Amino acid sequence: MGAYQPLQHHHGGAGAGYFLPRTAVTWLAAACLSLALLHLLCCSPPGGHQAVFSPLLQYFNGNGTYSSNISSSGVEERSSSAASCDYSVGRWVRAPGHARRYNGTACNVKPEQDCVGNGRPETGYLDWRWQPASCELPAFDAAAFLAAARGRHVAFVGDSMARNQAESLHCLLAAAFPHELVAQDAERYKRQFTRWSFPSHGVTLSTYWAPFLVRSGGKPFNYTMPYNLVYLDELGNRWDADAGTMDVVVLTAGHWFWNPAVYHRRGEVVGVHAHPELNATEIGFTSPYREAFRRALERLGSDGRRRTVVLGTFAPPHFDGKPIFDPTACTRTEPYRDGEKEVGSIEREMRSIVFEEAAAAAAAAATMRVEVEDVTRLATMRPDGHPGVYMHRDPFAGGGARPERMQTDCLHSCLPGPVDTFNEILLQILSRQR
Ligand SMILES: *[C@@H]1O[C@H](CO)[C@@H](O)[C@H](O)[C@H]1NC(C)=O
Ligand SMILES: *[C@@H]1O[C@H](CO)[C@@H](O)[C@H](O)[C@H]1NC(C)=O
Ligand SMILES: *[C@@H]1O[C@H](CO)[C@@H](O)[C@H](O)[C@H]1NC(C)=O
Ligand SMILES: *[C@@H]1O[C@H](CO)[C@@H](O)[C@H](O)[C@H]1NC(C)=O
Ligand SMILES: *[C@@H]1O[C@H](CO)[C@@H](O)[C@H](O)[C@H]1NC(C)=O
Fold first, then answer.
1. Which one, out of 25, 47, 193, 217, has a CA that is 20 to 30 A from the CA of 427?
2. Pseudo-torsion of CA 173, 179, 185, 188, nearest 10°?
3. Is pTM beyond 0.70 here?
């Protein structure tokens, strides 16, 4: 851990390690289907992106001072300190009511994630809490969170999973404290940007959709295109423009990287992923994934503002090989039991990349505290917490039989749902600094 991995800038030949094992390829093919879903849930309609980026809403006016001791000791050292706990290893234990903390309809979550409001009949998925192996994870405490974030701008940056967690946090806080919606993209832009404020504590909470962290084009904005365009050395996103106002940044991305892509650096194609039609070197997606995090961390570590950056590890989907139009996908109603499900090899690799980049950035940063919110394992164990067909309102209304084809979401978390636990961990990370 902590070894600084060189970025693999291959220009000729296919380097070892770029080709995934056959099982992984099969699995990725299934994963591509879930990307169709990511798109449907997170992106602007064709032709919509111009308007999305035009009027940048700049309402934030906090100055983000904060008083913690900035350490450059890095992730590894910090996680071995007495005050910390490894929340990443543990199990889900039954705890009736634990996750019934807010009404998703009342706090206006994305309708596709409002499982209770959409009529999901069984709600047992709300009766679990995460029990770390060697310590306790306290239940979410809105007052403690707002105290830890007092006077600061907390921003989630990344794909629709980042937004899912931001909306969870908003609801957890809004259930206990007065709040205001400051700005939100029109629904037709799928909430690429939302900002709330909690005036009692001077806390601002924002979410920025940036599926690759770095600048992208193609499929994310025009779904008829067969691949993503990823500009590895450019940020140029809305979040980049606002980064100077951010005091706590949660970065989460990953799912879009599985898609076919054409990668650029300095305006030139440097490789592709799963796009053999283009005569360019296959470079896989893990090296670009690493590079995107590195670019985002460089941005956040270079402007002299004291801030905390939290990298979320990958939270896997649970289509388990079924197509996204299969209404029987992710219909489990309980978490996996111990030993029933292991973290997959691709997820493990993506998780390691996040840890390595966090450690490298922490060692290099003077003003930035870098932490990892390691949710891969706990998310892996929760096939029951996705909307599934309850991404639709009353999907079986009229008493009809379950149709053969119906789009399902086995990717995001119901709100409320397992993603609330990510915010319980985030609270512990932020509390540790004061
Ligand atoms: C979307 O991409 C297709 C090609 O795949 C293109 O024909 C179309 O003009 C694009 N639409 C917009 C709005 O850019
Ligand atoms: C920062 O840490 C040092 C050593 O750990 C300690 O002596 C000092 O009081 C701390 N400062 C603040 C403001 O917490
Ligand atoms: C949630 O809130 C909505 C509107 O705010 C209300 O109609 C609904 O009954 C509430 N649901 C529950 C389970 O309390
Ligand atoms: C801004 O910074 C000043 C000190 O530089 C502090 O007194 C004030 O409370 C801060 N305001 C906010 C909103 O954080
Ligand atoms: C692809 O590149 C190789 C080597 O540069 C070249 O020989 C080949 O003709 C190219 N194929 C196409 C379809 O452009």
1. 193
2. 70
3. yes
